[in-house]
Amino acid sequence: MHRNRHHAAASAARPDTRRIIRLAGSLLLLAGLAWLADADAASGLCQEGRCGSTTSDATAAPDRGTLDFAATRRLSATGATGRRGELSSQEFFSFSGVGAIVCTVNGEQRMATAFLVGAFDIGVTVAHTFEGPDGTVAPENCIYTSTDSLGQIRERIPVISIKSQWAAEAGAAGHAAKDFAVIRLSEPSNYAQRTMPMGKFSGAAVSVLMIGFRSDMESDPMKSKSRGTVYERKVNGLSLASLEGFTHDIDARGIAAGSPVIDERTGVIIGIHTVPSRPSAGVVRNTMITMNDWLEQTLRTEMQAGDEKGANSNL
What InterPro entries would the database entry show (predicted)? Predict the structure, then answer.
């Protein structure tokens, strides 16, 4: 069964059914997380234990429960799209779980792209968005929002919890490889039709898509996609896992940090776009950071908390 929020029967039964599905799904997710540390990008962290997969059959009808990358690849092969462009109608559905976090600090706005993982009220983004001159930005100063294919705001959901690795772990602040934050919303997103599958990156070079909002969302509220390559990071055949992140050549000009970087073959998020706060040799490079132990454990904890809350509300 695939999630389709436009189905009338599903809508009528949504309150109880959704709790049951979410509880069952999260149990599967937690079981999957036990071996995720050894998994590659094909092992996704996703809602109800189901990760979208890509079909290679160009004639197959798109499944509304999966990420449809076949159309994107066909357009690329024929030169109909460049390295950067607008999303198709199907892609807006597939990436409806990608939104933005907007925070107000001292009368000024700052924003980052965010994406929903595991549940419709849990999101992942970058930690530096919540770091202000006077300390960490309070959750009540932030909202989660998303726009439709016309650039219209579809929802504004208050953020009630922010867990930042920079704030939680001694010595982590300022390190791009630890620029992670997990947020919880006051209520589930109703606009998102699916959460985003996230897995561990194998480290091998791969063709990717990046989906995100521009840093100046007020002037350009449209989601955009960019295509490129994430490069492997090895010396003498050994992986250098201690480096800040993986270099990519995606056109990220003006795109807010926090945007998911997606393996084009599998539809699984393998990393997050950010910009190192400590440029190498004075050069700022596009950087993709990948899931670490802190992010995995924090997502596990948040999903467990959500399931326990849902179970208690049924008592």
Answer: Peptidase_S1_PA, Peptidase_S1_PA_chymotrypsin
Strand order in the sheet with 224-230: 84-86, 224-230, 206-212, 260-263, 269-274, 287-289, 246-247
Per the CB < 8 A criterion, the answer to whether 113 and 212 are in contact is yes
SS3 229: strand
- Strand duo 181-185 + 246-247: pairing: unpaired
- What does the block give as tokens for 235? 């010396």
What per-residue confidence (pLDDT) applies to 95? 92
Residue 68 has a pLDDT of 38
- Residue 3's nearest CA partner among 65, 52, 46, 63 is 65
Spatial CA neighbour of 242 closest among 231, 251, 233: 233
3-state secondary structure of 127: helix
Chain-centroid distance of CA 109 in Å reads 21
Taking the chain (315 residues) in runs of 10, the rounded mean pLDDT of each run is 38 42 46 40 42 34 35 38 67 91 88 95 95 81 92 94 94 92 96 91 92 85 90 66 76 90 94 74 73 95 82 61
Residue ranges and CATH numbers for the domains of the chain are 98-185 (2.40.10.10)
Per-residue model confidence (pLDDT) at position 283: 53
Tokens 């990156």 sit on residue: 201
Token pair 């998102």: residue: 192
Give the pLDDT of residue 215. Answer: 84
> Would you state the pLDDT for residue 87?
81
Q: E strand or H helix at 33, and its extent?
A: helix 14-34
Amino acid identity of 256? A
